[in-house]
Amino acid sequence: MTIYLKLAWRNIWRNRRRTLITVSAIMFAVVFAIFGQSLNRGSHEIMIDNMTRFNTGYLQLQDRRFNNEPSLDNSFAYDAQLESRINRAHPQIELMLPRIETFMLAADEEATRGAMVKGIEPEKEQLFNNLEQRLVNGRFFTSAQQEAVIGQGLAERLRLGVGGTLALIGQGRFGMSASGLFTVVGIVDHPLREMNDRIVYLSLATAQELLAAEGYITNLLLVPERPRDTDRIAVALRHEFTAADLQVLTWPELMPELLDLLRFDMAGSYLMSAILYVVIGFGFFGTVLTMTLERLKEFGILLSVGMQRLRLAIVVFLETLWISLLGVGCGLAAAWLVLLYFHFNPIELTGNMAQTVIDMGWEPILPVSFAPELFYTQGIIVFILAMLVFIYPLVKIARLNVLAAARS
């Protein structure tokens, strides 16, 4: 095999210019494909990160009826025994964030707006999503006090500032009336625009008292030590709570619409990459076609002096493989350097596009992703192209008339 590899290596450099052109075409195809998909995936990762950290979390434990009927009646008891069961089921859970959520009317002296009220433990939320860093004014509340932190959009709609009084009116657990007055101690710029216009944060104990749900929560967010272990942890917890009235949901199950949107967006990137690789594939095929036709006499002579067709086919295959490996290797290295540059110097958006992104709570930049599958999938695609291209010289060698080829 070593001899075959050396022979194939020398053969591809017999026409140096053609080999360099083919390798360059493959390299640029790999770079452009990785860069385009990296930009798409980078924006998706920011979107998913914001949604998981500030809304659903990576994993949620909730009552089996809550996802279809998000009512306080479908809350569940949260205590140390439940925490112990979760820790026994899987040890790689970094944080547990209890929350109680419901819709209520938020009002000041002049206006009323619908609001999403969330009871949280601010210390744990800070560890998970750095929520306090989103404050634009004031501070976060302390536990068990009649204090609230509201979204900046809601504050503007109700014309409330720090020190103002917020009235919450709604329905508590089992249909009980729930209402209370709270001092606004902080205003937060929530990264999700829809939430920014209606979010009200209370301490967990205060929200439970307001809603007559002491000791109960609507969802328990579970934070894995490594996000990629989310599905594995979900399987372990589902096994633990098989017989209970609780269910475990991952973020794709909690946000199927977002997942469908991301898949649709990636489809465009995949289509462009497919077109790019079709063009490169034909160019690659043209190179192998020319190389094969130019060497028919050489093939005929080799076969006539006793070289087996299989061995000749192996050499030609290795030539194709060498060109593919060179193109992919150079492409991966160049793509990594390009992504590294744009990681430290991201593309900045301007104009209306920048303002739209800012309004959504994100930085006006196009981030890049270093997801491993972006790199190894390109190698697989080019290898498949090489296999398809190799069909032609393989068929040509198998059907070659030795005498006719040697005389040509």
The separation of the N and C termini measures 30 Å
Order of helices and strands: HHEEHEEHEEHEEHEHEEHEHHHHEHEHH
* Domain module count: 2
**How would you name the oligomeric state of the polypeptide chains in this document?**
single chain
> What can be said about the biggest beta sheet?
6 strands, mixed, barrel
Describe the structure.
- The chain is elongated, with a radius of gyration of 31 Å.
- It has 2 domains: 2-51 and 258-407, no CATH class; 65-244, no CATH class.
- The protein has helices spanning 2-12, 16-56, 80-89, 122-129, 152-158, 193-196, 204-210, 230-240, 251-254, 256-294, 296-304, 309-344, 351-359, 372-398, 402-407; strands at 59-63, 76-77, 93-107, 112-120, 135-138, 147-151, 165-171, 177-188, 199-203, 216-217, 219-224, 246-250, 347-348, 365-366.
- The model has no long low-confidence stretch (mean pLDDT 84).
- Strands 3-4-9-6-8-7 form a 6-stranded mixed beta barrel, surrounded by 4 helices.
- By secondary structure, it is an alpha+beta fold.
Features:
15 helices, alpha+beta, 14 strands, two-stranded antiparallel ribbon, 6-stranded mixed beta barrel, 408 residues, 2 domains
